[in-house]
Automatic annotation (TrEMBL):
Single GO molecular function: fluoride transmembrane transporter activity
Gene Ontology CC: plasma membrane
Principal subcellular localization: membrane
Subcellular location: Cell membrane
InterPro entries named among the record's database cross-references: FluC
Keywords linked to the UniProt accession: Cell membrane, Membrane, Transmembrane, Transmembrane helix
Reactions catalysed according to its record: fluoride(in) = fluoride(out)
Family: Belongs to the fluoride channel Fluc/FEX (TC 1.A.43) family.
Domain of life: Eukaryota
Membrane topology label: Multi-pass membrane protein
Transmembrane segments: 51-71, 83-102, 114-133, 163-187, 199-219, 225-244, 256-276, 325-345
Protein name per Swiss-Prot or TrEMBL: CrcB-like protein-domain-containing protein
């Protein structure tokens, strides 16, 4: 099975996240990011190829809105004396919406299948971030904020960010499934969109992303590091993750290889961008904004916690535990190699040295 939904109205989380005994784990993991298909017993006319222009086009604005939501939530929850790290809100919100999307997979398929992928892979995948989580943990280990605390407290801070994120993400995912299951019977399904409306939606989605290029160049420079650079790189990051998932997730029964590769690659790239932003001789203001956009946009959308949590829920027993441990360990080892060697070798500073201010 996959994370598919039978037609019954009342389902528990296990019915959605557990496997059908007649299907292997590889198909389970491969179907999470894909549009609803024959697995959900849809008629052929309502099934969209994973690489259909309608599916890919809707990923464009979905990834943009996901980035904006992440940056907005982080800005809202970052303040002096905050009680919890800002990414906790981001991951919990994205996983909750992911749970809603998983519970609505069949209704999405009966209405317009590409909307399912836009919501789960596009919006939730871009809202949540595995690479940002990993870098924050590593920053805690090395105390990059130069806080007055001992090594044991550095460890506790990184350990706290690890387990709180995992618990929040998995709980929010299941809570989203439950909430959607509770309210869904009170809403009737709308009629599917017409052909003209579907093509219009596809055209507008492409046009929306195309607008990020002039927005990047024509808005004032101080907007670039805040949002416009991230918007420019959002869809390429989401598309890379989606293609890796489509091509690699079906290969193994024990681990979603595509998501693992996307999360590992994005974490390594984000670590590298942080190193470049800490060079003793600061890079230019435009280069600094570009690096920030690549980190927030490309790496943030290339990596995902929401799909990661859904895959943990789809696996069982030690497969879920081993996938979690392998993914976390790989991320930290990559950052140790990239960021740790640069910090401790004295080549770069642990704090950002490049400036976003215009001269």
């Amino acid at each position: 099975m996959s994370l598919d939904l039978p037609s019954q109205q009342h389902l528990d989380v296990g019915s959605i996240l557990a496997r059908h005994q007649t299907t292997d784990d590889a198909n389970t993991l491969a179907s999470i990011d894909r549009p609803p298909s024959e697995v959900e017993e849809l008629p052929p006319a309502k099934i969209y190829h994973p690489l259909s222009i309608h599916v890919l086009a809707l990923l464009m604005p979905a990834s943009m809105f996901g980035v904006l939501a992440r940056l907005g939530l982080q800005a809202l929850t970052t303040y002096d004396g905050q009680s919890i790290f800002p990414l906790a809100y981001v991951q919990a919100t994205g996983c909750f919406i992911m749970g809603v999307g998983l519970r609505m997979k069949v209704p999405f398929g009966n209405f317009y299948g590409p909307l399912y992928t836009a919501l789960t892979t596009g919006f939730c995948g871009s809202l949540t971030t595995f690479s940002g989580w990993q870098v924050n943990i590593f920053d805690s280990w090395v105390n990059s904020g130069q806080f007055f605390r001992g090594g044991l407290r550095d460890f506790m801070d990184g350990f706290t960010q690890t387990w709180v994120t995992l618990v929040l993400s998995l709980a929010s995912l299941k809570f989203g499934v439950y909430v959607c299951g509770a309210v869904q019977p009170y809403f009737s399904a709308p009629p599917p969109p017409s052909k003209n409306l579907r093509y219009t939606l596809t055209f507008l989605a492409i046009l929306t992303y195309a607008a990020t290029l002039p927005v990047y160049f024509f808005l004032p420079g101080n907007f670039r590091h805040q949002a416009t650079a991230a918007l420019l790189f959002s869809f390429p990051g989401t598309l890379t993750r989606y293609l890796l998932s489509i091509n690699l997730n079906p290969r193994l029964k024990t681990i979603p290889l595509g998501t693992f590769m996307a999360n590992s690659l994005g974490t390594a790239l984000l670590g590298f961008f942080h190193v470049v932003q800490g060079f003793p001789s600061p890079v230019s203001q435009n280069a600094c904004s570009l690096l920030q956009g690549l980190g927030d946009g490309y790496c943030g959308c290339l990596t995902t916690i929401s799909t990661f949590a859904a895959e943990i829920g789809a696996l069982k027993g030690w497969k879920a535990v081993s996938y979690t441990i392998i993914s976390w360990t790989a991320g930290q080892l990559l950052l140790l190699l990239i960021m740790g060697s640069s910090f401790w070798g004295g080549h770069v500073k642990e704090q950002m040295t490049c400036s976003f201010q215009t001269s």
